[in-house]
Amino acid sequence: MNFVSGIFPVFLLVTLLVYYLVPKKSQWIVLLCAGICFYAFAGWRCLLYIVLAAANTFCTARIIDALGEKQETSFSAVRDTLSKEERKARRAQDKKKRFGVLLVGLIIGIGLLCIPKYTGFIVDSVNGVCGTSFRVPHLLLPMGLSFYTFQGVGYMIDVYWGKVKACRNPFRYALFVSFFPQLIQGPISRYADLDGQLTAPHAFTAAGVRAGALRVLWGYFKKVVMADTAMTVVKAIVADPDTYHGVYVVLLLLVYSIVIYGDFTGGIDITIGVAEMFGITLHENFDHPFSSRTTKEYWRRWHMTMGTWFADYIFYPMSVSRSMQKLSKWGREHLGNAVGKRLPVYLATLVTWFLTGLWHGAGWNFIVWGVLNGVVILAAQELTPLFAKITARHPQFYAGSFWTRVQMVRTFLLMGLIRTLDCYCDVPLTFKMWGSIFGSFGRMSAQSLHGLGLSLPGWLLVGACVLAVWLVSRASPNDAPLREKAAARPTVWLGLCLLLLTVILIFGAYGIGYDAGAFIYKQF
Fold first, then answer.
1. How confident is the model at residue 485 (pLDDT cuts 50, 70, 90)?
2. Scanning 200, 276, 475, 518, which has its CA 20 to 30 A from the CA of 367?
3. 127, 134 Cβ separation under 8 angstroms
4. Cα 266 vs. chain centroid, distance in angstroms?
5. Does position 514 have pLDDT exceeding 60, yes or no?
6. 396 vs 402, 409, 486, CA distance in Å?
7. Is residue 333 within 8 Å of residue 340, measured between CB atoms?
8. 174: closest CA among 19, 17, 312, 39?
9. pLDDT in tens, 108-136
């Protein structure tokens, strides 16, 4: 099932009715059954896959927790008889045993992700490099596989680190994995944040349901009116790179930025809005990313739960690991202190961004996209002292609003340019198109714009959507969200809902012939 499918509103309404009619102690069971039904629409094999993934992470965490309790009891019994060195050695040995269990669980969990997602890519890459002709398998890629895999992996590691206690009820844990609003594209939740909310009783509140419903409609507006309409232009440019190059590549990065923002934030709005209707609060995933002045800041604002996941479970553990400490020591001795102290950060950053790109998709374009982001972040970090010297000479200019806007535009264009790797899905072709911006820029005509699949009213519609989204984002950054204010006034709320619904049905992908495509991040 997809959010844009016609059956989803019916499914949501029925689930809400049952959820608030049953006894409060049974509400979490309704959510579990809803998640199973939601996922079952994708096929029984997809359902089996999520069951296997959940069983692996649940059992691994339980074994780690039980082993830790047993080790603690055993250690307490002999603690006073051991010397300081013996206690330290005992602790290290116990930790090693728990890590062994975690490692098995990680291998199984990540294997369940990698086999369907990357087998075809690996075989195809081997054929291309070695000239072989192995058959490229086409395996089923379950919906939301990367998202619930990362949630489960994070949960196992948190149990190993002692941040949370392992869940003893397999059905309650299954709800954490299968909570249906976030199955398609996140956000990537942590067990400590979500478990208590999912199983707690929730009383019906009209204001909460109204606020959630309004956010859902706003998400549909951004997805099916703005993003899906603008996607027509992206497809036309990418389909004919020989004709649409130079200035059209700039148009592509601008329009695709609208598409990916509307598609992803629209989906997250639907997710968070649906959860809010059930009385559950999910983490925000975006914080005005196009207002970012640097690439690093951009990635603190865009897909925030993904960024914090990679930082917490990949970057920080890797950068402070014993191997990195040895590498840093070697670097200081052989390459100088300046290089040596940077090596762990450099390597951890590049590995993290390599994996981030690979997580986004099984293709070289995603890998190059990830590594480029890492390189840009490291380059900016190294140039910071130089920038500081330059800005110190003209503090009034560089501290002004004009320079801030220049930085925002620069970051937006840079991120948009790198993001075109997602559009062309071909690294050499993408680099060629980048080169055409400087080599054969050309110009656009009204006739060529019309040939991109949108009439003048269509372009005006996209422009009006962008303006509406910008105005709403500007109106509520430091104040209570507008939807909460509207939800507190039923008449205003009803009027806004009717307006959004009318626009969605008349001007959106359902009403004017555009395809209401699946969410872009659904593939992850």
1. confident
2. 518
3. yes
4. 13
5. no
6. 11, 20, 41
7. yes
8. 39
9. 999 999 999 998 888 988 888 888 888 87
